[in-house]
Design a protein that fits this description.
Elements (H helix, E strand, L loop, with lengths): L2 H28 L6 H8 L3 H7 L3 H5 L1 H15 L7 H16 L4 H12 L1 H26 L6 H25 L6 H13 L4
Length: about 200
């Protein structure tokens, strides 16, 4: 009996992932403007109602993977050892995530490129990144405390600098057509912005 909820959640996660992958494949093949929810439903071999149970739009389905990573990133920062500073926790979390899931694949690069080209996706991605930044500021503040003057400003600058470094590293990785591991470029970018946070 105890395994039923776990199995149900796993099935839901698999369905979400299948819809996401079908949406991504169709968007790459046809361009997002030429993909309908009906196309996705057919490609994922599900009903229209099932799609609606999981996603509100094709944009939701396409960006599902990125939004999962955002939640994972915040959780990873919060779960880092208490003795780490905010900056150490941020870097440790990104290293841990790359170690656990491995280097991103071509699919991730394609999705990132797609979002850079499509206005509705770009707007949604910017909103996602703003939400991530707010959550990271809170995680840093919870870890480093707010006792000292300017702590909130420092947490905001730290979170923003961290995310900018990751974004620039990702763009370089895509521009170089994945010639070097993303983790290597990220470490280099984070080193460049790390100096004020040591």
């Amino acid at each position: 009996m105890e395994t039923t909820p776990g199995l149900r959640e796993r099935k839901k996660a698999e369905t979400r992932q299948a819809i996401h992958k079908a949406t991504l494949r169709l968007a790459v093949e046809r361009g997002l403007d030429h993909v309908t929810v009906e196309d996705i439903v057919e490609a994922a071999n599900i009903s229209r109602r099932t799609f609606s149970n999981y996603f509100g739009s094709k944009e939701d389905a396409l960006l599902y993977g990125e939004e999962q990573r955002i939640r994972d990133m915040v959780r990873a920062v919060r779960e880092r050892p208490a003795e780490e500073s905010g900056w150490q926790a941020l870097r440790g979390a990104v290293r841990e995530m790359l170690r656990d899931v491995g280097e991103p694949d071509r699919e991730w690069a394609v999705r990132t490129t797609l979002t850079r080209r499509h206005p509705s996706l770009l707007a949604r991605q910017l909103a996602n990144h703003a939400a991530l930044e707010r959550e990271l500021v809170q995680a840093i503040s919870d870890r480093d405390g707010q006792a000292e003057p300017g702590a909130d400003l420092k947490a905001r600058i730290m979170a923003a600098a961290f995310l900018v470094a990751l974004r620039i590293a990702t763009h370089i990785w895509i521009e170089e057509q994945e010639a070097r591991p993303l983790s290597q470029i990220m470490e280099q970018a984070l080193d460049e912005v790390a100096r004020p946070f040591h």
